[in-house]
Amino acid sequence: STQKPISSGFQTNEYADAQLQEIIRKMRERATVYKEKLNDPVLSSPEGTPSKKPPPPPKEEKKEEKKEEAEIKPEEDHYCDMLCCKFKKPPLKKYKEYLQLPESIDSYTDRRYVAWLMLVTVAYNWNCWFIPLRFVFPYQTPSNIKYWVAIDVICDICYLCDLLIFQPRVQFLKGGDIISDKVEMKKFYHSSVKFRLDVISVLPFDVLYFFFGFNPALRANRMLKHNTFFEFNDRLEAILDKAYIYRVIRTTGYLLFILHVNACLYYWASDYEGLGSTRWVYDGEGNMYLRCYYWAVRTLITIGGLPEPQTLFEIIFQLLNFFLGVFVFSSLIGQMRDVIGAATAGQNYYRSCMDNTVSYMNTYSIPRLVQNRVRTWYEYTWDSQGMLDESELLEQMPVKMQLAIAIDVNFAIVNKVDLFKGCDTQMIYDMLLRLKSIVYLPGDFVCKKGEIGREMYIIKQGEVQVLGGPDGTKVLVTLKAGAVFGEISLLAAGGGNRRTANVVAHGFANLFILDKKTLNEILVHYPDSEKLLKKKAKVLLKAKGKPAPGPPVQQPRGLAGLFGQKPETPKMFKALLGGKGKEGLAKLLQLKRQQDTQVTPQKIDIGKHLHFCFQETSAEAQNKPEQEEKKPVEPTASSAPPEQKKEPNVDTKPKPSTIQRETSKESLIISMSPSPTAGEGEILKVEVKEKKQK
């Protein structure tokens, strides 16, 4: 027979063929995903977790607001031309708004109020330091009196502004409520002791200058405004990062002021006794203030080496100085010790913990290598976060404050984790309060292969390496800040999942740990997030359970790729064929000839007699005697009506498969049909017919 030559007129475009293959692959994947979605309602669409979108009207309103802001901004921009440069400056309106005095003042958060208190404190310190100085020492003279009076007037203006403008606007608490009403704030201030002292401190005793001369003692009432001074100290310490530095400076100022007052008293006593009248009094030579201040320092600190007092007044004055010096100096030294001790309390606690740990390791002869790693952990933990355990600090605060701090510190890291994207934000907030921070040293094993996984890890800072390979030293991947590992052990429903690789800290690594029990306690209150995590757990477990990819299968070219690959031959027919082509059919035909000489279709129940075919196949493979292979098989009694034994109809039953042998005059027809009796499965029908003579 001659074969017709294949026409070469049809040619395929490789680019078009590749595009068609890609479209078919995507359509199949999409169909598979949506089938899974129909079967499992927990799964969401392949586009990712849907987020709640605001309705269109708010979006339009936001766009309109943005347009209005954009239109306003060019009007607010002001530029100043200076020489060859052009500088942008804020408009005067903004300066006025910032400097405008508010209706009510929050004394705890308003920085402008703290700045005003500082100005009043400067005026108060001027009066406290220079009123005694001007009263005792002859520094105020008719030639410079105008300068002293001018500065006094400025200080008095500050006092009056504070009394009339600022203090009546300060908010206060009443029954837990913040009162910001003008009338209530004024009434509260006017009923306080502070108001009475402020009024006394601004009484104009200066008018008595016209009767008694310019005597600075008439301004002694200005030193009663001490409440403002202490309020400024409290507010300033609250906003400073290192308040202990200011406390040390303030305590030093107290000491210097006491020495200043003592120096003024010594000059007054010397003037009372007569300058240079005895060896104990000031002799009037040199700088009078420095000489008196030097004497006050040596007296209060009890250094000694001073001239002996001669008169009764001098002896009493010196005794009072000694007693006062011991009391004041010891008090100030104790206060200084408390300030420095409070500033270094954390450092002392760290040293104490480290010393106790080192002592414990030496007692039990811990190896030197382990001791060095423990010391390294202490030093790095203290240097990186300033404390050994952050939870001790947060436990003293209410839960809301703990959450606020945790959000500011850790929310940006946890929110980047793909595993928790789409989950309820409040669930993430609750999880932030349960996370535990642990520091790992370089080379520490975070988890080892084969361990039971009970927690997951989130990298807060640093890097970790996943090791594998035959010897377990090959770096498979390096994970950085924000990465997650161990989540399969956390999300698996059955539990007992073992670690599949070693994870080692590359450098100093700070990790968050979340165990399975804690996560389950949180998810009880968030069912939607629980469903989402279950969906992601299924995807992760499915991806983990996939076999390793084999060699790539060559895709058929042309239009053949549109129909997919040919399905594999069913195992039942493979067993029936005997595994070697036509030899299995030959055995079956020999069996049928011996069993039934008539051309009658025989039915074999699959559930009872299909094992015979497998016996025949295995017998042939083991070269058993042919007599054992021809063991007769009794046909099963048919429960179907006689009409069903005829040749199956093409319209109502599946089309039978016909296999012809060239060396025989018979044709073999094999077909399957459902059993009419419930529970018996399907029936395999084999028919042997003689070929018709042409």
How would you portray this structure in words?
- With 694 residues, the chain is α+β, with helices and mostly antiparallel strands.
- Among the domains are: 111-239; 409-544, Sandwich (Jelly Rolls).
- It has 25 helices and 16 strands.
- A hairpin with a 2-residue loop joins strand 1 and strand 2 (85-89).
- Helix 4 packs parallel to helix 10.
- The radius of gyration is 49 Å and the shape is elongated.
- The two termini are 20 Å apart.
- The model is unreliable at 1-8, 42-55, 57-65, 67-76, 546-553 and 598-663 (pLDDT under 50).
- It holds the Pfam family Ion_trans.
- GO terms for molecular function: cGMP binding; intracellularly cAMP-activated cation channel activity; intracellularly cGMP-activated cation channel activity; protein-containing complex binding.
- Residues 58-71, 623-633, 643-654, 682-694 have a biased composition (Basic and acidic residues).
